[in-house]
Amino acid sequence: MRRDPYRVLGLPHGASPALVLDRYRELVKVHHPDRNGGSAESTARFQEIQLAFEELRARPAPEGSIDERLAKLEQELGGPQRRERGPDPSVTRVTTLIDGLDDLATSLDKL
């Protein structure tokens, strides 16, 4: 299973393309096989960084800010809808039962 490309690069989700590119360049300098003697570990990490960067670069850039996208989504879904809440039948039954027990206790106290 492939790892999340944002985690591989150590970036927050939705990072800007400029931030992705800067982080990619930093990591490539550190993990390039020519700098680290070509060990299998550094080569694997380098390839992982390459794949993550290519995957993020291939994704289309989102249109607008996150607030604009959320507003658009709410508008498409019809906006927030309030539900009218009535009395819950289970609560009503329990309340009736407790009232009946109180009446019974009062009757027993009178005896």
* Secondary-structure class: mainly alpha
Count all strands and give the number: 0
CATH class of one domain: Mainly Alpha
What do we call the CATH homologous superfamily of one domain? DnaJ domain
Query: What sort of overall outline do the alpha carbons produce when their principal axes are compared?
Result: elongated
Report the uncertain regions.
none
Q: What topology does this entry show?
A:
Blueprint: H1 5-9, H2 17-31, H3 40-58, H4 66-77, H5 89-110
Helix pairs in contact: 2-3
Protein name: J domain-containing protein
Pfam families: DnaJ (PF00226)
InterPro entries: DjlA_DnaK_co-chaperone (IPR050817), DnaJ_domain (IPR001623), J_dom_sf (IPR036869)
Q: How would you characterize this protein structure?
A:
With 111 residues, this protein is mainly alpha-helical. The protein has a domain at 5-58: Helix Hairpins (Orthogonal Bundle). The protein has five helices and no strands. It has helices at residues 5-9, 17-31, 40-58, 66-77, 89-110. It starts with a helix and ends with a helix. This is J domain-containing protein.
Entry summary:
With 111 residues, this protein is mainly α.
Primary descriptors:
111 residues, mainly alpha, Helix Hairpins, 5 helices, 66% helix
